[in-house]
Amino acid sequence: MSNEIIVEKLIHKGAEASLYYGSWFGKEAIFKKRIPKGYRIEQIDKILRYNRTLNEAKALIRVKNYGVLVPPVYEIDIENSTIVMKYIKGEKLKDILNSLTTTKKVQYLKEIGKIIAYLHKNGHIHGDITTSNIILTPTQELFIIDFGLHDYSDSIEDKSTDLHLFKRVLISSHGSDYTICFDAFLEGYREGYGIEKINECRDILKNISIIETRGRYVKKEDRL
Amino acid sequence: MNLKNNLTLGIESTAHTWSVGIVDFSGKVLSLVNDTFIPEKGGIHPILVKEQHLNNFMGIINKALDDASISIKDIDLIAFSKSPGLGQILKIGAHVARMLSQLLGIPIVGVNHCIAHIEIGRFLCKIDDPLTLYVSGGNTIVSAYESGRYQIFGETLDIPVGNLIDSFARDVGIPHPGGPKVEALARKSDNYLRLPYVVKGMDLSFSGLYSAAKRLIESKDYKNKYTLNDIANSLQETAFAMLTEVTERALAHTGKSEVLLTGGVAANKRLQEMVRYISKEHGARFEVVPLKYAGDNGAMIAWTGILRYKAIGGNTLSETQINPKERMDQITIPWRS
After folding, report:
1. Which 82-141 residues of chain B touch chain A by CB within 8 A?
2. Nearest Cα to B27, choosing from B303, B289, B297?
């Protein structure tokens, strides 16, 4: 076993952070580094990078307790705003969703619904649930990544906002099958939320349409 | 229908600007005349704007015709802004357009104002398929074309960014429009006062930022520990960093190779600088719509009307109902599919 940290190559350049592939004491690892953003002034840049790195690392560690699959954290380097975590092999759901059979789509979306419900039930808001942030492994496990906008909250509003974002992503990027996908997602969500909190779950789902009607430029007949 | 001259008269009337543009079918702008309501104090009061537009609309149409050296009879197509905007103002444009269409016996097209902003940008900047950041006093939208529509990837959850700047300017006694003045003040300071930075997923919220800036003005530390320039700088830096972050995220998500900045706030050099920066980082071409066509104008309405007319023809009269709250992602785009 090697006892070195090797950063091999840049594998993804996101809007917020760059992902490097490498090895961490002999283990395949991802280095998620929040790079300074040259477009914003240093004061804003520092606050955002520091807070988001710390917040994300804490979240990754905590949500594991609720049976949610996330990359395990190996190391947190706050000075360089870097999180070192396990490398998860697989494909982004965004890239493969449109080519899946309907049965598979329903199966995965339902599972994702459950996972998000586990997060919400325990007061975790992902903040950026998109199909780019879900990885399907070769063993058909679904990993949730990118907790950069994660927040702690028990409010109905925050949870529905989270779901509303996912709904919008499904519409904008996977338009043709949006209804099937979102229905399956909601079914899983209800199931994951469980019978003991059924009222809360109902309020959250109801609030999605309230958020939509509150949005700008909504058709008159849809407004409240 | 046999069109004689391929000339379109476009009417923009969604808010404080009544604008008439005459554009031919190749996109050449023959004339563009604007009449903008500037409030003596306070914001844009719909009743007062309506008064001004009703008094001036015919003069502006005549001036546009004169500038283009044509007669009203040479016009082949009428386009007008049918959504979104202030209902009272949209109505004037719709009424005038319907009247002209019937009087002259020519086709009419109702145009979505937000889509017109994107289309004029695509045309003038010779861009094919951009990710657009549209920032004005009435809208803050990050949009791109996908699955037959201009999808909205991010937008403000409360006030538009232009409204934030205008309202702030008004509070400190800067007359409308406050944008250029706030930009000038901000340039004089490098001090940053921490203000709330609110990005929720791909959406933005500016109302907390506005309240926080207002509190800074009302505080007893104002003019002792920090100046107006400092607040202007902090306000711009925070708001624009938020806009740029969301734009960058949408750029990464959609993988578009072009970025278009439009709307009245697009004139801001600092915002241009920030969006240009991220475009460059992602290898995307960056374009700002020329100032004359970035704000509300009749030429963009005419041009979008032409696109729609060429693709599927004009609207029936019953389709020219105004719709003050129409979202751009509700509309299919026949000329791009």
Report:
1. 84
2. B303
Architecture label for domain A91-222: Orthogonal Bundle (1.10)
Helix A198-214 and helix A178-193, axial crossing angle in degrees, nearest 10: 140
- The amino acid occupying position A109 is L
| Fold: same for B7-118+295-330 and B129-288 | yes
For residue range B285-326, what is the model confidence (pLDDT) as tens digits?
Answer: 999 999 999 999 999 999 999 999 999 999 999 999 999 989
Q: Looking at A95, A128, A177, A183, which residue is catalytic?
A: A128
Is the Cβ–Cβ distance between A127 and A36 less than 8 Å? no
B337 pLDDT above the threshold of 90: no
Q: How far apart are CA A65 and CA A60, in angstroms?
A: 10
Angle of helix A102-121 relative to helix A178-193, nearest 10 degrees, comes to 40
Q: What value does the CA radius of gyration of chain B take, rounded to a whole number of Å?
A: 20
Predicted confidence (pLDDT) at residue A221 exceeds the cutoff of 60: no
CATH superfamily of A5-86: Phosphorylase Kinase; domain 1 (3.30.200.20)
- The domain ranges of chain B are 7-118+295-330, 129-288
- Same fold for the pair A5-86 and A91-222: no
| Strands B140-146 and B131-135, sheet pairing | antiparallel
CATH code of the region B7-118+295-330: 3.30.420.40
> For position B234, what pLDDT does the model report?
97
Q: What is the pLDDT of residue A2?
A: 62
- This model of the complex carries an ipTM of 0.85
Q: What is the DSSP string of A43-68?
A: HHHHHHHHHHHHHHHHHHHHHGGGT-
Q: Sorting pLDDT into bands at 50, 70 and 90, what band is B3?
A: low
Q: Which of A39, A44, A48 sits opposite B277 (nearest CB)?
A: A39
Query: Do A44 and B197 lie within an 8 Å CB cutoff?
Result: yes
pLDDT of amino acid A212: 79
Give tens-digit pLDDT for B178-221. Answer: 999 999 999 999 999 999 999 877 889 999 999 999 999 999 99
**Model confidence, pTM:** 0.83
Which CATH number does B129-288 carry?
Answer: 3.30.420.40
Asked if B325's CB is within 8 angstroms of A40's CB, the reply is: no
Length of chain B: 337
Please indicate whether, in this complex, the C-beta atoms of A172 and B152 are within 8 angstroms of each other: yes
| pLDDT at site A174 | 79
Residue B155 contacts A, CB cutoff 8 Å: yes
